[in-house]
């Protein structure tokens, strides 16, 4: 029986208490011709390289999988992530090395879309301010404050990037009577029209939107996609939402926009640096609602993502192509066969 060794940094990220690899191993233990094992390695670069240099696969978590690590992987067939974002792996280096990188792009779409709508409604209706007024005995101030705000129905929501989460947000937002526009040069306009969304330029989106919701991925070309000049171009009454990635926004520009009144409010699940420094001005702003990069979290989080990682690793262990490869160009240089649906021991709730 062939052996398949998966090396992962010791410890875990985004996990509930207890940890362990039972969920990942469900699909791997179901293999009849492969004996798979997950082995924890050191979290320092040199130590991890020494442990992983002959590994069949890397389960990426906890530490960045850098170009230095990747160039020392002599036998690696896949680098698997239990997250949507792949910014912790040097994908370019992996592609040059002919190593597929997998993520879980479709596992937590509904949770993140729910969270985006939560921030939209909470900022628009000034939920934190209203709560504070009640607790401080300022009951009579609540209604007058909201009488300054228009009704939600008929407002315009602008989506930057129109991927899975933005489309799930669209389905929810339509129920609140929002007009929806989107900017994404990589998505066919017909896809947007079919969902009742109007494609626009970024300039039009910023000037027309009452809500601007950022969904761009953490890619080098998206770093600081929104800067001070972009916030200046928005309505002074506009609300900015980000449940995507913090580095897509120049946070200093966002802070200035909130301080100067270029925009009215922000709802942020992500920040440029996480966790934020204690002296980050955003932490003291009354016109910001924050959450701790938790949009994807729910009771199914660990189970679903770990099973998906195990399924990807099991496919590669059989010499098959993974389901969610973020660098498909490596297909030309790898010996893996294209993926075909097979039963590999997934649990009933995966």
UniProtKB/TrEMBL annotation:
Residues 117-295 form the D-isomer specific 2-hydroxyacid dehydrogenase NAD-binding domain. It holds the Pfam family 2-Hacid_dh_C. Keywords: Oxidoreductase. The keyword Transferase does not apply. The keyword Oxidoreductase applies. It comes from the Bacteria. PANTHER family: 2-HYDROXYACID DEHYDROGENASE-RELATED, GLYOXYLATE_HYDROXYPYRUVATE REDUCTASE B. This is C-terminal binding protein. It comes from Sabulicella glaciei.
